[in-house]
Amino acid sequence: MAGHSKWANIQHRKGRQDEKRGAAFSRIAREITAAAKIGGGDAAFNPRLRLAVDKAKAQNMPKDKIENAVKKGTGEIAGVEYVEARYEGYGIGGAAVMVDCLTDNKTRAVAEVRHVFSKHGGNLGTDGCVAFQFKHCGQLIFAPGLDETLLMDAAIEAGAEDVLTNDDGSFEVLTAPGDFIGVREALAAAGFQPELGEITMRPGGETNLTGDEAAKMQKLLDALEALDDVQAVYTTAILGE
Predict the structure, then answer these.
(1) Closest CA to 86 of 94, 98, 95
(2) Res. 2 pLDDT band, cuts 50 70 90
């Protein structure tokens, strides 16, 4: 099944995430705390916590910080009470944007998100205004150059929902959220290591932006990601030169 070209966008996103490692630590710590509070502190029985801890280790987050974040979630250490909030809106060129937050103050969070949208040419919308444009799923991205048949066979055997071949030669393996860890581990055992793997809100369509529009959209996305309460930003925008 053919998909659109997105390898450059993925590499660009990874690079920007690496540049923001300090902010990434605080976001991951919040996610670990929230996951432990909801599902308990044992990652073996809490898939959300396991994913968060895996992400922390991939970012070389110190072990003591991981353990403290878990203990805050289980109540062993006093910590901030976080609540989840999702905000939806439109960016440049009508591109859909979803913003996931973990915050101790929803009034502050929505005010800051609304301000960023307004300042950078977007609009904060109502609940559900763009959610239908995204699918909650596991996503594994593989670099161009792999053997498509071998990858597809391994993915299907592992229980993946779909394998997409993009125009630039990269591959996407999609899973149900609950199957993500199992599929990722099965593919790793078969010799396929993803460049990027996460449970995400994957856009069903794309809004291609270039030139000045792409630059403005990048500023909007960067400003949203810079907010302390924001955990993740999803968009249908594909940014070109």
Answers:
(1) 98
(2) very low
